[in-house]
Specification:
It comes from Gottschalkia acidurici (strain ATCC 7906 / DSM 604 / BCRC 14475 / CIP 104303 / KCTC 5404 / NCIMB 10678 / 9a) (Clostridium acidurici). The chain has about 625 residues and is α/β, with parallel strands linked by helices. Helix content is about 45%, strand content about 15%. α1 crosses α12, α2 runs antiparallel to α3 and α8 packs antiparallel against α10. The radius of gyration is 44 Å and the shape is flat.
């Protein structure tokens, strides 16, 4: 399905709303991957699943999905050969327990939801793995009873720590150490037991400095009397880690032996979480499961756009007597909302999401849904609005067929109305001949007239409140709408004389061309002054305002009022307003003087005279220059 269509119609926003009903991240991840299906059997199954899940919730309450944990990261670690930590193993055990719980719950719902309950038969119950993990790990720590070796090591650790603390307590209670001790307590720094000592006594206490406080006033000393015990303790803790690693390695391997079954369970639990999220959403919007076909027939009765709070229910039909509908009316009248509603609901249905509407609603399952809406103007490519739309529409026409729904907003706009409406009609005919279902919006009269005359096209209009200038979102089939431009202009307080003139023109009265212009005399006088300054000729001299003086004019004003000046043997264009006339050419040079010679140096003038008198040397030089230029090219 086209990503641009899904984005423009608000499909991703709708999925986010459904996602909020998920119990776990598993369901949310699956909804993120959800796309509309183009297979009618798949769509039927998804809608049926949602309906069955809805029935279960309404009769039995929510399923036991609360204990559902996301174990995808742990599964990925196992696939990469990483050993899981105790917390990750407990999460897998909890996940397997949740699988057993949902399986038993769903199998009990067979009389309510036959198909949905059948999925539960594929869930694996792996109690032996659960038991092994839960026996080995207590409170996210490997239990001492898991192995005799671990039990022995921890017993030695405990005895060694007792000896260390007894020795340190003797150190603290000794009167000779009283003045050197900062605080009378035993602290751990890293894996070493220490006593906080005043920094000024650090060289007077027998022992090893393990750490220093951030202020530097306290050092943490391992007294000499416990160094032997601390060394033993460090070795014992290393042995403990090695034994724990062996146990975790065994448990991870046990999980790996069931990895296929766990992955199947994971997929089923994700599916259940997503299906029940759709069901909860359906309950909240009072949704229905619509009928389906694959013939292009759409029958909407009292449907709502889920992304618009205040929305009048929409009735719409297409695909039987007519396959193309043109919705007309004012630009602010809600035509685009109608397009978006039809498109979004089609995407929702093909994703197994219920819609709000009458139970007799029917949707066609389309292979593709295309939309052209809004301004896709590209600044980078300097495309006009019209060009951007046509590029998109060209792509739509090339990919459309009899199983395509095409939504076109303001087709033909952005260019000359006559040409735009002609192109629009041609596009509509092409899509019709390809068998596509086409819904377009327009305010062009030519398109309205075309739709009225074509046997398989139909006009529709959206009602518009002329007093409040707000769309009513109510679609009337078989009627073409008015643009209501004059109504809107009047409400926006456009000058009355402008409105009156517009009404005369609209009624067919001739446009008055000889109306007096405001301050016409002033305007004519201004034009005379400007024309006077535009009359620069070749050979005149001018002064650049706030610049160089006595500059030769090479050419008079062009169509954009720039004159060409000869400055430092180069031609420079400048607006006539930025110069003032110094001398006219006729006042500077005698009659018959060649003005062109002013712009040639001695060499160029000599060459020109030689050519005129037929000098072979001069002609040979010209040919050589022409040859050199061709070679450079």
């Amino acid at each position: 399905m086209n990503l641009n269509t899904m984005d423009k119609l608000g499909y991703f926003e709708l999925k986010d709303r459904v996602k909020n009903y998920c119990t776990s991240n598993l369901g949310k991840k699956l909804i993120d991957k959800l796309n509309p299906s183009t297979d009618i059997k798949v769509v039927e199954r998804m809608l049926r699943d949602t309906s069955e899940a809805k029935s279960i919730i309404l009769r039995q309450g929510n399923p036991p999905l609360a204990g559902l944990f996301d174990i995808e990261d742990s599964i990925e670690k196992i696939d990469m050969g990483t050993i899981l930590n105790p917390s990750e193993l407990i999460t897998i055990s909890d996940f397997l327990r949740a699988c057993r719980s949902i399986k038993r719950f769903m199998l009990d719902q067979e009389y309510i939801a036959l198909n949905l309950s059948n999925y539960a038969r594929s869930i694996y119950e792996i109690e032996e793995l659960e038991d092994e993990i839960n026996t080995a790990i207590k409170n996210n720590r490997i239990s001492s009873s898991t192995s005799k070796e671990l039990s022995r090591i921890r017993r030695y650790i405990e005895n060694t720590e007792i000896k260390i603390k007894e020795e340190l307590n003797r150190f603290l209670s000794s009167s000779k150490n009283k003045d050197s001790i900062r605080e009378f307590l035993i602290t751990e720094r890293g894996d070493t037991y220490t006593i906080p000592i005043k920094s000024e006594y650090k060289n007077k206490v027998e022992g090893r400095i393990v750490a220093t406080s951030s202020t530097g006033v306290t050092v943490f000393v391992e007294p000499k009397s416990v160094q032997k015990f601390n060394s033993e303790l460090l070795k014992l803790k290393e042995d403990e880690k090695n034994e724990e690693y062996q146990i975790l390695s065994f448990l991870t391997g046990f999980v790996l032996s069931y990895i296929k079954e766990i992955k199947i369970n994971l997929e089923l639990m994700m599916e259940y979480d997503m299906i029940f999220a759709k069901a909860k959403y359906s309950i909240d919007i009072d949704g229905i499961e619509p009928k389906l076909n694959k013939n292009g027939y759409i029958n909407l009765q009292k449907v709502y756009n889920p992304l618009i709070e205040k929305y009048v229910p929409l009735d719409f039909q297409i695909g039987k007597e007519f396959r193309c509908v043109t919705i007309t009316g004012p630009n602010a009248g809600g035509k685009t909302i109608v397009l978006k509603t039809i498109g979004l609901l089609s995407l929702a249905v093909q994703s197994g999401i219920h819609i709000k509407g009458n139970k007799d609603c029917e949707f066609s399952v389309f292979e593709n849904i295309f939309i052209d809406i809004g301004d896709n103007q590209s600044i980078e490519n300097s495309l006009s609005t019209f060009s951007a739309h046509i590029r998109n529409i060209s792509n739509i026409v090339n990919k459309s067929n009899e199983r395509t729904l095409v939504l076109l907003d303001e087709l033909g706009s952005g260019t000359d109305p006559k040409e735009g409406s002609t192109i629009a009609i041609s596009i509509l005919q092409e899509l019709y001949q390809m068998g596509s279902i086409v819904i377009s919006t327009s305010h062009y009269d030519r398109i309205k007239e075309f739709s009225e005359k074509h046997p398989h096209f139909k006009n529709a209009s959206v009602e518009f409140d002329k007093e409040t200038l707000t769309p009513l979102y109510k679609l009337v089939m078989g009627e073409s709408g008015e643009s209501n431009a004059l109504w809107i202009c009047e409400k926006m307080n456009l000058k009355q004389s402008v409105l009156n003139r517009a009404r005369k023109i609209l009624s067919g009265d001739e446009i008055i061309l000889n109306e007096p212009l405001y301050n016409n005399c002033i305007r004519e006088e201004k034009e005379k002054v400007e024309n006077k300054f535009k009359e620069f000729k070749k050979g005149d001299t001018v002064d650049i305002i706030n610049g160089k003086k006595n500059i030769l004019v090479y050419d008079g004003a062009d169509e954009i009022n720039n004159i060409t000046l000869y400055v430092n043997k180069e031609l420079v264009k400048i607006n006539y307003r930025k110069v003032t006339l110094r001398n006219k050419a006729e006042d500077l040079y005698p009659e018959g003087y060649s003005i062109d010679d002013l712009f040639l140096d001695y060499t160029e003038r000599k060459l020109e005279k030689d050519i005129k008198r037929g000098s072979k040397k001069a002609i040979k030089k010209i040919h050589k220059e022409i040859k050199n230029r061709k070679h450079k090219r």
